[in-house]
Design goal:
CATH topology of the largest domain: Rossmann fold
Number of helices: 14
Largest sheet: 9 strands, mixed
Number of strands: 18
Helix content: 25-40%
CATH class of the largest domain: Alpha Beta
Radius of gyration: 25 Å
């Protein structure tokens, strides 16, 4: 049965059957998910929801508290997005962050105006009242500011509890455990930010801290069983940890109802396909069908240079391959994928609100409209480190769980420009050297990602006594907590020298290696 013959459906709801949940109302900050991550780190489950989610839906989720995120707008702008006024009548503790604080002030009767001087970057904050949000913290705190508006008049019942040189109301406190803060506690530049969030969660919201990724497994398995019933599932194995963990979760839930399909598209790292298939068939006893599709993908990518088009082509060909394989296998109703929360955020899926799309993820926003399989995405609300913890609790081997992230379109977006067989082999071989040297030096597990990019640039070189005019390979090594922000890794020079020497000597048609020292933002981790 083809995909077109299977009825349409939506992705599974998040497994939120947990005693305590906090909702983060998103008003368009690119880093709203960092708030969610920090809350998860404090062992409280949370979800990122649209900022204008109706109050009735908020109440139906029975949250312990709400966080209003930052955002790019000004609350007094005609088109500014405000929450449903009904959320203020629910009696819930609320923490407003930056734009969220201004919403809290504006909506409850205060006044917000443009600042005489924009405050961006580090600031020294003086705590005027050391309880509540600032309980147990010093009276002077370094914080990270990013705002162009200030609160001129506090809403009734609120008082200023902290200030900076440029923000007379850097923090405010009101009834029912409600606070507003002008700075960002979720970023590393506010060192005591997690402690402030802890005070809100455990003090104002009364949370106990019963969330852990390991405990997620039981809830996810139950949700998958409920969603799937007696139907059959195919799982899109890609070679990375995300799809492997997703497949293992689904297999634990429905057993032989699952068939994994591994489309070997020729865009993977060296040895990746064989390793993943071996682990999941030998250790987890899953049924895996391997589809040899290298020629198909190369033909589809011929002449394509735009990165977004590459992503669309890869997504389209994946679905086509699944369509054909599903027909051969006799049909399925559900498609399981390893979609993660950052994938959802960056693709501006319907779960998020007002964010600017960075790039299409082929397993989120790039699926063709004609696809009729219903999605099972058990990891859709997890961050990468949480997925790894889930994988460990499921018994997957460490070398698979701790593999560095790899993009869905694979090496196609690490070849800048047209993808050809020769260019793929060049970047694959260079990438192997990077990974091998990072492991040899003991740095592989200490960075977020390390890989090679084949640039569209050629340069003059000298090898032996001969002039060369060959490819330039860029090396990208970054540190990060979740992939949403990243910094370039300060790798020792001798390691970089070994990487460069080996690439030039071992990879044909390369005579120059450069190192990318850009952070995210303003760059992204991948080049395309």
């Amino acid at each position: 049965m083809s995909l077109a013959a299977v009825r349409a459906g939506s992705a599974a709801a998040p497994p939120t059957a947990t005693p305590e949940t906090v909702l983060v109302l998103d008003f368009g900050s690119q880093y709203s998910q960092l708030i969610a991550r920090r809350i998860r780190e404090l062992r409280v489950y949370c979800e990122l929801v649209p900022g204008n989610l109706p109050a009735a839906e908020v109440a139906a989720r029975a949250p312990r508290g709400l966080v209003l995120s930052g955002g790019p707008a000004s609350v007094y702008d005609p088109g500014a997005i405000h929450p449903d006024p009904g959320i203020y009548e629910l009696g819930l503790p609320i923490l407003g962050i930056c734009y969220g604080m201004q919403l809290l002030a504006h909506d409850l009767g205060g006044r917000v105006s443009p600042a005489g001087r924009r405050e961006y970057g580090p600031a020294a904050m003086v705590v005027d009242r050391g309880d509540g949000l600032f309980s147990g913290l010093p009276s002077e705190l370094p914080v990270w500011m990013s705002h162009g508006d200030v609160i001129d008049e506090l809403p009734p019942g609120y008082e200023a509890v902290a200030h900076t040189a440029n923000s007379p109301v850097a923090a405010m406190a009101g009834p029912m455990g409600r606070f507003g803060i002008q700075f960002h506690p979720e970023v590393a530049h506010t060192p005591q930010g997690s402690e402030m969030l802890r005070n809100f969660l455990y003090g104002s919201c009364g949370c106990r801290g019963d969330w852990a990724p390991e405990g997620f497994v039981q809830r996810a398995v139950a949700e998958i069983r409920r969603q799937v019933g007696e139907e059959r599932v195919i799982c899109a194995l890609s070679g990375g940890v995300d799809s492997a963990v997703a497949a293992t979760l689904v297999h634990r839930a429905v057993g032989d109802q699952l068939t994994c399909v591994f489309v070997d598209n020729g865009l993977l790292r060296r040895g990746e396909a064989d390793r993943v298939i071996d682990v999941l068939t030998r250790n987890m006893r899953m049924r895996i069908e391997r589809v040899e599709a290298q020629e198909r993908f190369l033909a589809a990518l011929a002449g394509v240079v735009d990165p977004e088009e590459k992503r669309r082509v890869v997504g389209r060909e994946f679905i086509s391959a699944f369509d054909e394989e599903t027909g051969r296998l006799g049909g399925a109703t559900f498609l399981a994928q390893g979609t993660l929360y950052p994938d959802v955020i960056e693709s501006t899926a319907p779960d998020t609100f007002a964010a600017h799309k960075i790039k299409t993820h082929h397993n989120v926003g790039g699926l063709p409209a004609g696809m009729r399989l219903r999605l099972v995405e058990p990891l859709r609300y997890l961050f990468k480190d949480e997925v790894r913890q889930v994988g460990q609790s499921l018994g997957l081997p460490d070398d698979l769980i701790h593999r560095q992230p790899f993009p869905g379109p694979g090496l196609a977006i690490r070849v800048i420009g047209e993808v050809t067989r020769e260019r793929l082999e060049t970047v694959r071989n260079a990438d192997w050297v990077v990974i091998d040297e990072m492991k040899r030096s003991g740095l592989y597990g200490k960075v977020w990602q390390s890989f090679a990019i084949l640039t569209p640039v050629s340069s003059v070189g000298v090898m032996g006594d001969f002039r060369t005019y060959a490819n330039v390979v860029a090396v990208r090594i970054v540190t990060s907590e979740d992939g949403m922000t990243a910094d370039w890794a300060r790798v020792p020079y001798d390691v970089l020298a070994d990487i460069s020497r080996r690439i030039v000597n071992e990879v044909p048609s390369v005579n120059r290696v450069v190192y990318d020292i850009s952070s995210k933002p303003p760059s992204t981790i991948e080049w395309e």
